[in-house]
Amino acid sequence: MGLLAGKVAIITGAGGGIGRGVARCFAREGAAVLIAEIDEASGRQVEGELQQELGARALFLRTDVMDKASVQAAVQTAVDHFGGLDILVNNAFVPSEHVLLEHKTDEQLERTLTSTVWASWWAMRAALPHLKARGGGRIVNFTSIDVDTGAWQHSDYNTGKSGVVGLTRSAASEWGRFNITCNAIAPTAMGATFHRLAAENPGFYERSAAARPLGRPGDPEADIGPAVVFLASDMSRYVTGVTLHVDGGLHLPGYNSRPAGVAVREY
């Protein structure tokens, strides 16, 4: 019996990167997985992997986390197809252009807040009655080390992920009475963005590895997925309201994200 045997999970953004790694770990541990992904090709591919390679119950549903009705439909589809809901993982977000704070637009901030705070809010509130019906459940929200470091050119993202942490802690406080735990995870791993940066910037992999006390970048499936399994399973039944850094220790030294060419002082 796996750690998630008999459980039903929704994972947003499970078509690639960390979301795919989490989905594969959940499948190995016996969970039925709804792959809530906007890209149909990658979502279908992960659905096939879970079903054919791992023998899991899995269903892809095209889901746009920018749209409330789409998020709510994902929750209802999981319940209708698998018979209930036990675990919600809010991983997906819409990236924005990397520009300095003074050049970010209202539209960029609105888009980022919608895909992070609002998407998590909609999913959590839609999931609540179904989690209560099962006698409790697990919610895992994704935040970022960028919040802690105030990462340059990520001001909208940092704002959104800070909001996710506040939402996580509020849900942990209020929904504990329903036997629902709510935790956040702040991972770093070799997803699509990492591989693109490594291809475009010679030495990026080595610098990234050296910045971490453990001396290597993380793998979405081998390193991040098991930590999310922990937060989704009964192993963490007495853990709620925490932010778990899964980054090889990068949060200890932090990092300097100042872009090249930006003056230290401009006055």
3D structure, described in words:
- By secondary structure, the chain is an alpha/beta fold.
- It has 9 helices and 7 strands; from the N terminus they run E-H-E-H-E-H-E-H-E-H-H-E-H-H-H-E.
- The protein has a 7-stranded parallel β-sheet with strand order 3-2-1-4-5-6-7, with helices on both faces.
- Helix 1 packs across helix 9, helix 3 packs parallel to helix 4 (106-133) and helix 4 runs parallel beside helix 6.
- It is globular.
- The mean pLDDT is 96.
Summarize the structure.
By secondary structure, the protein is an alpha/beta fold. It has 9 helices and 7 strands, in the order βαβαβαβαβααβαααβ.
List keywords for this structure.
single chain, 267 residues, alpha/beta, seven-stranded parallel β-sheet, 9 helices, 14% strand, globular
**Could you say which structural class the secondary elements and strand pairing correspond to?**
alpha/beta
- DSSP strand tally: 7
Rg value: 18 Å
- Please count the helical segments: 9
Q: Main β-sheet, in a few words?
A: 7 strands, parallel
Strand order in space, largest sheet = 3-2-1-4-5-6-7
Tell me the fraction of residues in β-strands, as a range. Answer: 5-15%
Poorly predicted sequence stretches spanning 5 or more consecutive residues: none
Rounded mean pLDDT score = 96
- SSE order: EHEHEHEHEHHEHHHE
What would the principal axes of the Cα set say about the shape? globular
Report how far apart the termini are.
Answer: 64 Å
Please give the share of residues in helix.
40-55%
